[in-house]
TrEMBL record:
Keywords: Cell membrane, Membrane, Transmembrane, Transmembrane helix. Residues 412-529 form the Integral membrane bound transporter domain. This is Integral membrane protein, YccS/YhfK family. NCBIfam families: YCCS (TIGR01666), YCCS_YHFK (TIGR01667). Belongs to the YccS/YhfK family. The chain crosses the membrane at residues 21-38, 44-61, 68-85, 116-134, 149-169, 446-462, 492-509, 515-537. It comes from Azotobacter vinelandii (strain DJ / ATCC BAA-1303). It is a multi-pass membrane protein.
Length: 724
């Protein structure tokens, strides 16, 4: 029976990644609101809502068993934090010292992994919520247990909903994460197709820069999907349903490697084949493969059959066009036609991978389906990691130190000026203070604008709808909007949470008196956060640039060594190879993120931004040449040139590591290396008549060697920047 437009819309809504999150929040807030109305205990509403919000912010992705364990840990942390605030609240100096120590300690826990960071952040948030509750009631009561108990009850109520939801719909997060992966791959391929426009003097550098930035989104999606799948693999043996998605994940990795491959400089192809249709045909095939990835994303999200676009005719036409060019026997085209042949072969294999995605259950299990769990596996390992991070060079340490200073500073300020609802200063500081200046600057702007919009909306809506029942509905809707938009539209999320606060306070008093204090507190909290990031061990991106660049080259060198091992022993997607490949792409994405953050910093701290972006283009081009080697992996036959290829690959890896070491140590990088130039010439002069696999490795190594001189010339002046 065909689905109706309405049922299709429901399926799309259900498949959206924020819908289930928002629905859980809606049920939790509505249930708490109804309970308070039925019991006529509206004084419980604010702590219940705050507990729900803190619990939802501390939610970690996991199987239902893992989520239950995380919930129990979270509730224990929440209870300890809330009772500690109640006990220390009457003693300002002790409270300030405890606030500093707990802020530092909880933030440092984030260095152990995302799960720890989420729970620690939620605990800090709940601590400040407890302060707000004490301030709201006018001081500590005789029964110290009441406020913590209600806050933890709200957190437990949402946590139970979350565990039940995960038990009922355990694979939904995997589907949503894999859909995001293929959606990003589709957009990446569509952008990659633009490089094959047969236009002379095309600005390939700008296109490659856009491709590198898009690649960082693909890498982020792959990393997120890996973590979600990893949390659902029990004792290394996934269930049949999870195994199906694991195969799709490995398929996405293979597609990414082939999609990111480059076989020759694009301007040279456009210049040589300007009057041919071969580049148009390449562009058409790649665009269609991008559309197939988008269709696959939609099929996974909606749990529908995947109808892959048939590209057999387009691929056949591409081979016909290549055959016609070969018949012309133009000596100047020889190397280019080799590369175009390798590209066509790559596109055929990419199409087969997409065809395989129609029935992943039929795929053979991977030779090695293990996934690396980066979280500490023992208490000793966790302590070792924390010790390694206890240095001013560590970003988690810097962020923890800033919060340990900023939050007590806000606490001291509110005792100095005694503002109304002053504990919102601390909450604003906590939300606004980010690990680097650029992110904090953006968050300050969004927080202030969102607060103003939320206050205006609250003032207007309360004037138009004085009924408390209607305002209660506004509070629930605002809470849902906050969680639906907090990661994508923070300004709107801030406006929503501001409206929720006003609506809740209006249930127990007059929220109009909260409008100006809320705005002033937001401004003061933002000012404290901005000063902390600017003055306390500032994390300027240009000071980190040398090390980020060095890591990029070092990871590429390790990737190259793993590739050559595969060419010696045959293709095998084992963990060591996949880890080297993923590290190279992660380093490339980290460079893109660093440069994006640099653009948001003051002018004097982004003097090397232009050099950094040019380096990103070169390093991403280098990675694409390596990816082409990965796409065509096979055991090479023994031949006279084999030792030279192995020697050349090792020399290239050594050169990349040499440049990386000089950059990391802030030492001068030699702009020229004669041995690299000689190596490039030898690679370009190898005999033409040889095995196709040997010729491809030769061509790709020559392309990689050609990147070394430009990399050296860009790296040479960067030693001026001190490394902190």
């Amino acid at each position: 029976m065909p689905s109706t437009p309405f049922s299709q819309s429901l399926r799309q809504l259900w498949a959206h990644h924020v819908f289930s999150y928002s629905l859980r929040v809606f049920i939790a807030l509505t249930g708490s609101m109804a309970l308070c109305w039925v019991l006529d205990r509206m004084d419980l509403l604010i702590p219940l809502f705050l507990g729900i919000i803190a619990s939802a912010l501390a939610e970690t992705d996991d199987s239902w068993e893992g989520r239950l364990q995380a919930l129990l840990v979270t509730l224990a942390c929440f209870a300890a934090a809330a009772f500690a605030v109640e006990l220390l609240f009457p003693y300002p100096w002790k409270f300030a010292a405890a606030l500093a120590l707990s802020s530092f300690g909880l933030t440092m826990l984030g260095a152990l992994g995302e799960r720890y960071a989420t729970i620690a952040s939620g605990t800090l948030i709940l601590s400040i919520y407890t302060m707000i509750g004490i301030d709201q009631r006018g001081g500590p009561p005789v029964d110290l247990w009441r406020e913590p108990l209600v806050l933890v009850a709200g957190a437990a109520w949402y946590g139970v909903l979350s565990v039940i939801w995960q038990a009922l719909f355990s694979t939904q997060p995997i589907q949503q994460s894999l859909a995001r992966v293929f959606r990003e791959l589709g957009e990446y391929l569509k952008l990659k197709a633009s490089l094959f426009e047969p236009v002379r003097h095309l600005d390939v550098g700008q296109r490659r820069l856009e491709l590198a930035q898009r690649n960082s989104r693909v890498v982020a999606a792959l990393n997120a999907a890996k973590e979600i799948i990893l949390h659902r693999v029990e004792n290394g043996r996934p269930s049949p349903q999870v195994n199906r998605y694991l195969k799709l994940y490995f398929l996405a990795q293979d597609i990414h490697e082939r999609a990111s491959s480059s076989h020759y400089p694009y301007n040279a192809l456009a210049e040589a084949f300007f009057h041919s249709d071969v580049l148009f045909r390449c562009r058409l095939v790649i665009r269609q493969q991008g559309k197939s990835c988008l269709a696959l994303a939609r099929a996974i999200e909606l749990r529908q059959p995947f109808d892959c676009i048939d590209q057999s005719q387009a691929l056949e036409d591409l081979h016909t066009s290549l055959a016609h060019l070969r018949m012309q026997s133009n000596p100047a085209w020889r190397h280019l036609l080799y590369s175009l042949g390798a590209l066509a072969d790559n596109l055929i294999h990419l199409d087969r991978l997409l065809q395989d995605a129609r029935n992943p259950d039929a795929l053979a299990d991977a030779q090695d389906n293990s996934l690396l769990d980066r979280e500490p596996q023992s208490l000793g390992e966790a302590l070792s990691r924390l010790r390694q991070q206890m240095t001013p060079a560590s970003r988690p340490f810097r962020h923890a130190l800033r919060l340990a200073v900023a939050l007590p500073a806000g606490y001291g300020l509110l005792h100095l000026i005694h503002p109304t609802q002053g504990y919102w200063i601390l909450l604003t500081t906590l939300f606004v203070c980010q690990p680097n200046f650029g992110a904090t600057r953006r968050r300050v702007r969004q927080r202030i604008l969102g607060t103003v919009l939320g206050l205006l909306a609250g003032w207007a809506l309360f004037a138009l709808f004085p009924s408390l029942q209607v305002q209660a509905l506004f509070a629930v809707v605002a809470g849902v909007v906050f969680f639906a938009t907090r990661t994508s539209h923070y300004t709107l999320a801030t406006a929503a949470i501001t409206l929720l606060v006003l609506a809740c306070f209006n249930q127990v008093g007059d929220s109009y008196g909260l409008i100006w204090p809320r705005l002033v507190d937001t401004l003061l909290g933002s000012l404290i956060a901005g000063l902390a990031v600017f003055l306390i061990l500032p994390d300027w991106q240009d000071r980190q640039l040398n090390r980020v660049l060095a890591n990029t080259l070092a990871c590429n060198a390790r990737y190259l060594r793993q590739l050559m091992l595969q060419y010696r022993s045959g293709k095998r997607d084992d963990l060591a190879y996949r880890l080297a490949r993923r590290d190279a792409h992660n380093a490339d994405a980290a460079l893109s993120t660093t440069l994006a953050g640099m653009l948001m910093e003051p002018g004097q701290f982004r003097r090397e931004a232009d050099v950094g972006f040019r380096f990103l283009v070169l390093s991403h081009t280098l990675l694409s040449y390596l990816s082409a080697l990965g796409a065509h992996r096979e055991q090479l036959p023994e031949a006279e040139c084999r030792p030279l290829l192995d020697e050349a690959a090792e020399r290239l890896a050594n050169s990349l590591e040499e440049i990386a070491l000089e950059l990391a140590g802030n030492r001068p990088v030699a702009e020229h290396d004669e041995t690299e130039q000689v190596l490039l010439q030898r690679l370009e002069q190898l005999p033409e008549e040889q095995d196709d696999g040997l010729r491809l490795v030769q061509n790709q190594l020559a392309l990689i060697a050609g990147q070394l001189a430009p990399l050296r010339s860009l790296a040479a002046p960067l030693q001026r920047n001190p490394v902190h």
